[in-house]
Amino acid sequence: MYETYWKELGGKMDFTITGCQSLSYFANTKNLCWFLEPKLEQEIRNLHNNVGNAIVENRHVIVGTGSSQLILAALFALSETLNDPNPVNVVSAPPYYSSYPEMTDFLRSGLFKWAGDAYTFDKDEPYIEMVTSPNNPDGFIREPVVNRAKGMVVHDLAYYWPQYTAITSPADHDIMLFTVSKCTGHAGSRIGWALVKDEKVARKMVKFIQVNTIGVSKEAQLRAANIMEIISLSCQRSKPRELANFFEYSQNLMVERWNKLRNAIKNNELFRVSKFPLQFCNFTRDFTETYPAFAWMKCKEGMDCEKVFRGHKIVTRSGKRFGSGVEYVRVSMLSRDEEFDLFVQRLSNIHGIGN
Length: 355
Ligand code: PMP
What we know:
By secondary structure, this protein is α/β, with parallel strands linked by helices. It has helices at about 5-10, 40-50, 65-80, 100-105, 180-185, 200-215, 220-235, 245-265, 305-310, 335-350, and strands at about 60-65, 90, 110-115, 125-130, 150-155, 175-180, 190-195, 270, 280, 285-290, 295-300, 315-320, 330.
């Protein structure tokens, strides 16, 4: 979706890695996260300070192969610390990101297990709650819902960037996860990072990544650092004139797409999407709604929405996968322009279940 922005920058983003560069597993042996490139750490801290979406002071920065790897690293670190013979319950409030259950149970770990719906979790046992805010799939701002004594929380803030929602305050949680996938659009670089308060937890997360992949690609880290540097520069008043403010640019795109989507279903009784409240964004210094990266669409009661959409050549993910019903689907709002326009066009043509 942000490809055009990066295309317009042309060769300005090019950088060279010579054959003799970055050969070692290590990036900085003095750092707790010894495989984290110092330049990436600096750009992560800068970007958060510029955007104001997370506290970085007194936090350990841990880089991962996407935030996907860090989700597992966090589950490992939190559950291993407990030293409990039983697997720790992992919960999330539906609709939740469909990868959480899959990731949690994939290796049938003895450390943690998927325990499903956070709203109904009432066991007097340790648990880890995954809190995604803004939420994937429905875009709403979220807080923990279990709030019991033996709880630990992982805040997945992949979408807490100004193009998707108002930055109302710097997030200040024990474990916060971010990713370039959703921030800059460079999902293929596979770079995510965690901001972690507790040193012991941070060390265990690093240990997980050490055993899993012995660190994270240096090439990818350096590229991500470059891209984040440009984004930070693009938000400065003193930026080069030809460099458009990335967040302004990407928010405009999101607004445009959401307008197109809402227009396409305006007079359609079959589908609904949520409205989001206006909130003041400290970054843009303006009021804004939330423009989620996904449209969470509700079809008429009893309809298998995924099936209806498939009949109209629209690929979606069924609500079932997110702990909700088949009357919901999740549709990506982040595809390429042509693909998105085709989606809206096909959506406008659905007037009845058999049409
Ligand atoms: N968390 C959430 C909420 C996501 O939506 C995604 C990507 N769909 C991820 C984590 C994983 O992102 P990454 O590409 O950094 O692995």
